[in-house]
Amino acid sequence: MIDEPPPRGRLKVFLGYAAGVGKTYQMLSEAHALKDQGVDVVIGYFEAHGRAETIALSEGLETIPRRQADYRGSRFEEMDTDAILRRRPQVVVVDEFPHTNVPGSARLKRWEDVHLVLDAGIDVLTTMNVQHLESLNDQIWQSTGVRVRETIPDWVLKQADEVVMVDLTPQALLNRLARGVVYPQERARAALDNFFKESTLVALRELAMRQAAHAVENRLPEDEQAPAPRTVEPASRDRLLLVIGPNPSSAALIRRGRRVADYLRAECLAVYVSPTLDSSELSAEQRENLDRHLNFARGLQIETRILQGPKIAETVVNFARLHGVTQIFITRERPSALRAWFAAALVQRIVTLAREMQVTVVADRSMRRDAG
Amino acid sequence: MSVSRDIPSARRDPDALLRQVEAEERSARHGQLKIFLGYASGVGKSFKLFDEGRRRSERGEDVVVAATQPRSTPEVSHLIRSLEIIPTIDVSGIPIVDVRGVLARRPRVCLVDGLAYDNPPGSRHPKRCDDVEDILAAGISVITSINLEYIAEQQEFIRTVLGTAPTDTVPQAFIDRADEVVVVDAPTEAADGIETDRLSQLRQRALLLTADVVERQLEAYLRLNGIQLSWGTQERILVCMTPRANAARMLASGRRNADRFHGELFAIYVMQENLTDEDRMALERNVMLARAQDAQVETLSGKDPIRTILEYARSHGITQVFVGHNLRAGWRARLGGTPLDRLVRDAEGIDVRVFPQ
Q: What domains does chain A contain, in order, with CATH numbers?
């Protein structure tokens, strides 16, 4: 007789908007509450950042020792996924969901480790900040000037069984920062200069709340979703088609398209149109960039295709029509004169041909204007 | 949210300026008001409130408790016992905050668990939130708590979801005036008594309501500092109407998109010369349609329609502009391509969605 695989574990995410709002603290409090109820809960990975109250909370909970990893002459510590699987607790606490593992690890990202643990039927409590969400990456860059490197594809957060907003007002957070609760004093000053500006914190906090509300809404059956529909517009679903290429603006297009598709509950496809059979129109570097964008889209659960056709607009629109696309998303190109002309021409061509579809020219959010 | 400024350099540190202005205002007349907002009882507001009281007290702040909930968990009771209490006055079974006692005691911080109570007839004020105003006016800070269902403006929504709504309410304006609002969130199974889907609706509403309060604070902050919003944390959709565009379709889609994003809908028309009577009638119809879709409608004038649209979009934090494909037909091509080309080229940071006829 073959053993049936255990039911997948439940994933609960404590969502915040900055370091120091209390995500880890709240997660550990919950772990203690579970332990008191007799649940077998262990710490798989936790980052104390030297915060006394948090360290105190980790005491009294069993901790799985970290795995040591050597890379380029330095020693790193990572979560020991194999040890967690061997230990088989009911619930495991894993801090910093978006973490990128040191090169040479079995998996690139911590969230992939977490998926393995969930597959084994173990529940996971974890933490993340809203700015680590992939589809918000350009928006965060625009508003803070910080390019967040460690991101999580939106679908990973969407799969969470619970998303809980951990709230603290920016005033309180800044007070904690000033008292040295969050970072040692010298790092606090550096932090205050970028991510911790009050206006930035207020904006990030609002984003986190809207994201948490969106997560709650996703779990509701459709007929109970607020607000009640006020329009008679399509009962049928939207289908988005993203036209991508080797240029950097494609990454922003993919993020934005993904986000809009999620909110509209639309399906999302991405295509590249090659005028030649073998993509020989691209230089080696362009080819590499294109592949990166295609992989990026697939990582965000967007189906990708490479289409062949001598005329880009015609090929895109024919494909769109064949696949019941309702909205085509294209990029604005950077203003080199020829490119700008070409892009404008492409927009016009597509708009003229795709008479029954909506065409969205996505803002170039990778370009930062005078930001505060 | 990206911001651009058009202010003299002497005023360029908005954070410092805001803190200065705020500090001056507060020390002059008012205690600070902080509100913990939850979506149902049992999510942990009382614990958060008294835990903050305990921490402040441990840091040396003079903290007293002026009201507690009739029942509390052992953890909350334990926290309350560690704090000084000014007992409520009992009038025909209803607990009233002893405002005179609090004012005489003059603490730095006063904890009031449960903001939405109606006081019995003959009290100092009809509502507990008015008592709180008195305490704030005396320069004493107040930390308090409320559930979504007790906000007056939410009554209709609450009745739809729960079937009934309480009568003791606090106006939304009271929440908006708070210096700090903290949302106390918890998964829906944590609160008991109501089925999960309904709780989820309340929970979503509480999060969005707090996000709106935060947004208004952000706007006030940016206005105060002469900062222009060019990328909203909230989606704002602008429908550009012309007499011949299929405005009905754009507005319907704009409304649906705004709803999905829990964003806002705007509709504008840029005045043009030489309109036929037919055009004028079409326009009037469009304006009515826009109002019916609950859009903020405005008629603008400007020699250059594209510039007018973009200026409006930037000053209103628009994230998506909806235009009809016939933009080409309505406005004569000027330097640098068709109007659509120009709109696309100059709409930095804003998505442009072109609708078919």
A: 11-219 (3.40.50.300), 239-362 (3.40.50.620)
Contacts of A162 in chain B (CB under 8 A): 187
**Chain B residues 240-299 with CB within 8 Å of chain A:** 252-253, 255-257, 259-262, 293-294
Q: Is B20 on the interface with A (CB under 8 A)?
A: no
Are B349 and A198 inside 8 Å of each other by CB?
no
Whether residue A227 is preceded by a cis peptide bond, meaning omega within 30 degrees of 0, is yes
Mutate to test the interface with B, among A15, A141, A206, A249 (most CBs of B within 10 A): A206
pLDDT over threshold 60, residue B29: no
What proportion of chain A, given as a percentage, has pLDDT over 90?
Answer: 51
Start-end of H helices in chain B: 14-29, 45-58, 74-81, 99-105, 128-137, 155-162, 172-176, 196-224, 247-260, 277-292, 305-315, 327-330, 339-346
**Between residues B321 and A282, the one the model is more confident about:** B321
Kindly state the average pLDDT of the residues B63-83: 93
Which pLDDT belongs to residue A365? Answer: 65
Whether A276 shows a pLDDT value over 90: the answer reads: no
Distance CA B69, CA B52 (A): 16
B83 vs A: CB within 8 A: no
Residue B188 lies in a domain: yes
Give residues 106 to 165 of B whose Cβ lies within 8 Å of A.
157
Query: Which residues of B are less than 8 Å from A227 in CB distance?
Result: 259
Say how many CA atoms lie within 13 Å of B131 toward its Cβ. 30
Return d(Cα A305, Cα A271) in angstroms, integer.
Answer: 5
**Which of B201, B224, B247 represents a domain boundary (last residue)?**
B224
Can you give the C-alpha Rg of chain B in angstroms?
Answer: 26
β pairing state of B89-91 and B94-96: antiparallel
Q: Range of B349's domain?
A: 236-355
pTM of the predicted model as reported, rounded to 2 decimal places: 0.79
CB contact under 8 A, B325 and A351: yes
What letter represents residue B154's amino acid?
Q
Q: Give the ipTM of the model, two decimals please.
A: 0.75
